[in-house]
Design brief:
Length: 803
């Protein structure tokens, strides 16, 4: 709580500074210039960021380029402190996205949803899979903090990430981007606008991004870890025959071939158990003395720094994510003060996962035992959505948005977990098992090829959602500084599914979910003075119910629901050269969806590698409290600085223990819960400098991003005690982080009639800082903890040509 009151004191201090600075607003300006006004579409209409009474962070295309942020995973560094982006497990093929402490542990499934909605050009993306594809000609990223249940609907209880693309301009021209960097990286982009003809404008975007592995695989012909090869393209056509009507049609396709981050062993035998002799191990598990541990194979080393080469060579091929779709946006100006819109979209995701990231870290040595759990998953999802909007006003006193929304999806997945490697009798060597398999227990065979896999889990699920919503802002003529916004949304959710393979056995577990919900919003905003806007807001949101397809029975769970109270201030002063935005909030969440994760890592066990996960709604109320501040200043003509800070305090009640057959923790016992990927304190800062150099411009960018240590599992347990019996939740945190990125650019290089160019030298993680962002203690009692480190320093040179 000391941090919370410290944050509140900071808020009061910054408010006082802001008022003092505003009082001096009439003073003559020095050589500084005003900050750019930022336009956003968070309220379904174009508004000025500072006049929009909600907490929004914006990253422009320029800001993303300065950070060399090529996809959403680049925001793992903490560019926006309240936004947390992480991989699911170690996989780049699926991202976990959270805001303000609402971060789902595992939404990487067929019948579960995220707590933060991700949208591209107004279209909701239903699955975590495919979120890391390359961003095709980005305009900006809007991060809407706090529940967005009224205008955005289901699964936005923490907020929404709205990605806005650049549309056709109707003016002939384009841009080319080409770059190279370390780890064999290269990029290429083409963005071509064609001249408008008879009201029709066309734009074509294409790109590729490549990076070799940052952790090498010693096995010849196999992929390493943390490599990617992304390709994507999009065609947009905008038809605007007159000022009243427009039709935008876009078709896109992206393919991302990537490998997971490497999971390495960071300690061995942390409980200090007696290490068994080779003879004891070779005698078999039955004769192993209690409270002892198998020795570590001589080929495997414990490392506490980021590993560069795996100790063990293994089979690893890239996962393949394919995403694509088509959308059509129609706009018709019925009257000067009323526009009707239709947004129709069909999208699909296909993910073929190949994850052998924990080759040497997840299984202790046992004579002739298998190891190298190859996590294979094939997930296919398709979705369709239709939204109708009416956006208008009744003069200066009333503005409104109303809409109808429909969403439908179907997802199916099958998974297998063969073991690729096998030890010899004494752990001094290993062999690679056959890629084909006749059965799970067949000697020397594994079965990771399609058609020979021993499927351990398979499910399918369908979801359908209907919604009607409206929101209006009233500004009394007699009190034009006061703005009252009231809104509401009613949603009907239906979902059903079948879990037809569990732990390799055919089953027929089904679930259904059918519920409706109303989400209100009330927002009172007041223009206290020129450039000073205050607001107080009450809103709600929810994350839809579903079922966990990693469970034993596909038992349905209910929605989790949030009530949020927020006060904020948005201030521009010193002739719009200093901008300070503040927000403090309290959120109460009921029905919190808690995941209990359990993996059998015991060598020689009949269920070795089996992954069980159960989800339960926690009783009671989760309390989330926080404070956020964003300060931007145009110091001089040449220098802009920015600082952002987020404090997040989350307390989740204990959830009932779901697993039977444990003598220490009976079913239903309250079990402590960790909050994943939520640092109590996070901050970022940047400085931009520009200086004319003859006819050219020199630009320099530097940003720094800090986050406290954080958990990566909600409830993780296995053999976690010195005596080998489960006693408590494993409370394991990663490391705090401090990431610095830099960019030096020589811009406005004249190319005659061909246009202009810029040349940049960039670096991500400039200081080569190393930290653990994900750690697991699931096999602490049988070998030790394993962890994933952040990417190492990358750098390169990039040429941008505009013509």
């Amino acid at each position: 709580m000391r941090n919370y009151f410290g944050g509140a004191a900071t808020a009061v201090l910054m408010m006082a500074m802001a008022q003092s600075a505003y009082a001096a607003d009439a003073a003559p300006a020095d050589d500084g210039t005003a900050l750019e006004q930022v336009v956003i579409t968070a309220t379904k209409r174009e508004t000025n960021l500072q006049n929009t009474p909600i907490a929004v962070s914006v990253l422009s295309a320029t800001a993303m380029a300065d950070r060399h942020a090529e996809s959403l995973i680049s925001l793992m560094d903490g560019a926006i402190p309240s936004l947390r982006v992480a991989t699911f497990e170690a996989r780049q093929s699926a991202l976990t996205v959270g805001i303000r402490g609402i971060v789902p542990f595992d939404a990487n499934q067929t019948a579960r949803d995220q707590g933060v909605g991700v949208y591209i050009d107004g279209v909701y993306l239903g699955r975590q899979q495919g979120l890391n594809v390359a961003l095709l000609d980005l305009e900006r990223v809007e991060v809407l903090r706090g529940p967005q249940g009224t205008l955005f609907g289901r699964n936005t209880e923490g907020g929404a990430v709205s990605i806005v693309s650049k549309g056709p301009s109707g003016v002939a021209g384009g841009r080319i981007v080409a770059g190279v960097g370390n780890y064999g990286s290269y990029t290429g982009e083409l963005h071509q606008d064609f001249q408008e003809f008879n009201g029709l404008s066309i734009k074509v975007d294409g790109l590729l991004q490549h990076q070799d592995p940052t952790v090498k695989n010693p096995m010849a012909g196999q992929a390493g870890w943390n490599q990617y090869d992304r390709k994507g393209g999009r065609i947009q056509a905008l038809y605007r025959p007159n000022d009243k009507f427009s039709a935008l049609i876009a078709v896109d396709y992206s393919k991302d071939e990537n490998t997971p981050f490497f999971s390495q062993l960071i300690n061995y035998n942390p409980y200090g158990k007696r290490v068994r002799t080779l003879a004891e191990v070779q005698a078999g598990p039955a004769s192993a003395p209690a409270g002892t541990i198998n020795p570590l194979a001589s080929l495997v080393k414990v490392r506490t720094d980021r590993q560069k080469v795996s100790d063990i060579g293994t089979v690893q091929q890239p996962s393949v994510d394919e995403t694509g779709g088509a959308m059509m946006t129609l706009k018709y100006n019925v009257a000067p003060n009323l526009q009707l819109r239709s947004i129709t979209a069909a999208r699909a995701v296909g993910t073929n996962q190949w994850d052998n990231s924990g080759i040497e870290a997840r299984n202790v040595f046992a004579p002739n035992a298998t190891f190298g759990r190859y996590s294979l998953s094939d997930l296919y999802q398709r979705q369709y959505s239709q939204e109708f909007q009416a956006v208008g006003d009744l003069g200066d006193t009333f503005q409104y948005v109303a809409g109808l929304y429909y969403f439908k999806e179907h997802a199916k997945e099958s998974a297998a977990t063969p073991f690729t490697n096998q030890w010899n009798a004494d752990g001094t060597a290993y062999t690679i098992r056959s890629s084909a398999g006749t059965s799970k227990a067949a000697a020397g065979t594994a079965g990771w090829e399609r058609g020979t896999r021993f499927i351990t889990r398979a499910s399918e699920a369908a979801a359908e959602s209907y919604a009607i919503y409206g929101q209006g802002t009233y500004t009394p003529a007699a009190m034009d500084r006061l703005h009252l916004t009231v809104g509401g949304r009613y949603t009907k959710d239906k979902r059903d599914g079948t879990l037809y393979i569990v732990n390799g056995k055919a089953q027929n577990f089904t679930f259904t979910y059918d519920k409706g919900r109303f989400d209100p919003l009330v927002n009172i905003a007041y223009d206290a003075a020129e450039g000073v806007n205050l607001y107080a807001k009450f809103s709600t949101g929810y994350r839809a119910g579903g079922a966990n397809d990693r469970s034993q029975t596909f038992q349905a769970f209910d929605a989790e629901k949030v009530k949020a109270y927020e006060v904020g201030a948005k201030m521009d002063f010193l002739q719009n050269r200093v901008r300070l935005n503040l927000a403090a909030y309290a959120m109460d969440r009921t029905g919190t969806q808690i995941d209990f994760d359990n993996v059998d890592t015991t060598p020689g066990s009949p269920t070795q590698g089996a992954h069980t996960e159960e989800t339960r709604n926690a009783p009671g109320t989760s309390k989330i409290r926080g404070f956020e501040a964003d300060l931007t200043a145009q110091v001089t003509d040449q220098i802009v600085v920015g600082v952002s800070y987020a404090y997040t305090d989350v307390k989740v009640p204990a959830a009932p223990f779901p697993f039977a057959g444990n003598s220490v923790v009976p079913v239903g016992t309250p079990f402590p819960v960790n909050v994943v990927y939520t640092p109590p304190n996070a901050a970022s800062a940047y400085i931009d400098f520009k200086q004319p150099v003859g006819s050219m411009t020199f630009k320099a960018h530097l940003d720094a991003n800090y986050a406290d240590a954080q958990y990566s599992f909600q409830t993780e347990f296995a053999d976690v005690s010195p005596t080998g019996s489960l006693t408590q939740n494993v409370a394991v945190k990663g490391d705090s982080s401090f990431i610095v990125n830099g960019n030096l650019t020589l811009a406005d290089i004249a190319m005659g009639d061909a246009g202009s160019a810029s040349l940049s030298l960039w670096s991500r993680n400039l200081l080569n800082e190393s930290h653990i962002y994900r750690i697991s203690a699931a096999n602490r009692g049988t070998i030790g903890d394993y962890a994933n480190f952040n990417p190492p320093r990358t750098y390169g040179i990039e040429l941008r040509v505009k013509y």
